[in-house]
């Protein structure tokens, strides 16, 4: 099987009520998949199920195969190893994932050392600076000693991506990574994720409620609604020929450049 991640019949339920309902999708090594759907459609529960981090009380059924291994059959210890070394996650709110009392550099260095036992503090610090440069944080040599609150939202998300990369993961799951950011910064973070994927060969699962976000980044799309996959296909096909009314409604909500130009023309904007 050439798929890196293969999800079959995944169901997540609370008190017997499914919030993710028998969904299927797969991601090839180095590939990219967008999971799109409105708030509450089960996207985060899907990603937490893959990571083995579902909240207490959540029931799970179906199979999640990663690199040919059924993750459900791994012991907690081996699952922790997969999570640390092979699958990395980037969340919506980097501030809550960073410790406010430690410098950003110390936290990246810590993540780096966690994957390389025996590496000296000095080498880890140098690696942290390098990791910050790689995600295009300017003056990394100086900023490595700054605290999370001294960074903008976009820069904090770059730090989280640097930490995710420290394990050299085969898969990055980014759950609404740009939702808290303004549009210009969103585009920069999406460019960075695309660049990272190209340079490292890691596969990417990008989760978002915003179809505009996935259009440039994901090769394949899964559209979720109320825990079910209502549409799946290449991003190109879903955008050019959406088959489910819900996908069409999501697409109608995406602002298009030609629409803005049209609006400018009709209002005589730009003099
Ligand atoms: N701990 C929980 N107990 C019961 N229901 C939950 C719990 N966590 C999430 N849910 C429900 O699961 C559904 C899917 O949530 P989620 O995966 O977070 O949606 P999304 O990420 O698409 O916005 C929601 O209806 C949510 O209310
Ligand atoms: Mg969510």
From TrEMBL:
It comes from the Bacteria. This is ABC transporter related. It is found in: Cell membrane. One of its GO terms (biological process) is peptide transport. It holds the Pfam family ABC_tran. Belongs to the ABC transporter superfamily. The keyword S-adenosyl-L-methionine does not apply. GO terms for cellular component: plasma membrane. InterPro entries: AAA+_ATPase (IPR003593), ABC_Ni/Peptide_Import (IPR050388), ABC_transporter-like_ATP-bd (IPR003439), ABC_transporter-like_CS (IPR017871), Oligopep_ABC_C (IPR013563), P-loop_NTPase (IPR027417), PhnK (IPR012700). Residues 5-251 form the ABC transporter domain. Keywords: ATP-binding, Cell membrane, Membrane, Nucleotide-binding, Transport. It is a peripheral membrane protein. GO terms for molecular function: ATP binding; ATP hydrolysis activity. The keyword Membrane applies. Its main location: membrane. Transmembrane segments: none annotated. The lineage of its organism: Bacteria, Bacillati, Actinomycetota, Actinomycetes, Pseudonocardiales.
């Amino acid at each position: 099987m050439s798929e890196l991640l293969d999800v079959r019949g995944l169901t997540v339920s609370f008190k017997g009520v499914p919030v993710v309902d028998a969904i299927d999708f797969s991601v090839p090594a180095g590939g990219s998949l967008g999971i799109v759907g409105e708030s509450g459609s089960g996207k985060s529960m899907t990603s937490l199920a893959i990571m083995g981090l579902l909240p207490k009380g959540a029931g799970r059924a179906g199979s999640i195969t990663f690199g040919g291994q059924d993750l459900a059959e791994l012991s907690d210890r081996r699952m922790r190893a997969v999570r640390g070394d092979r699958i990395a996650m980037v969340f919506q709110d980097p501030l809550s994932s960073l410790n406010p009392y430690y410098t950003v550099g110390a936290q990246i260095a810590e993540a780096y050392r966690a994957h390389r036992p025996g590496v000296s503090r000095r080498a880890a610090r140098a690696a942290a600076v390098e990791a910050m440069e790689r995600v295009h944080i300017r003056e990394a040599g100086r900023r490595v000693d700054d605290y999370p609150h001294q960074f903008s939202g976009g820069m904090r998300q770059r730090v989280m991506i640097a930490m995710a990369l420290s394990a050299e993961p085969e898969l990055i799951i980014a759950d609404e990574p740009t939702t808290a950011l303004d549009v210009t910064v969103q585009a920069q973070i999406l460019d960075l994720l695309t660049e990272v994927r190209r340079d490292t060969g890691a596969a990417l699962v990008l989760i978002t409620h915003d179809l505009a976000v996935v259009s440039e980044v994901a090769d394949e799309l899964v559209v979720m609604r109320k825990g079910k996959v209502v549409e799946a296909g290449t991003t190109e096909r879903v955008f050019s020929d959406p088959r489910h009314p819900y996908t069409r409604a999501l697409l109608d909500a995406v602002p298009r450049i030609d629409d803005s130009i049209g609006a400018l023309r009709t209002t005589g904007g730009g003099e």
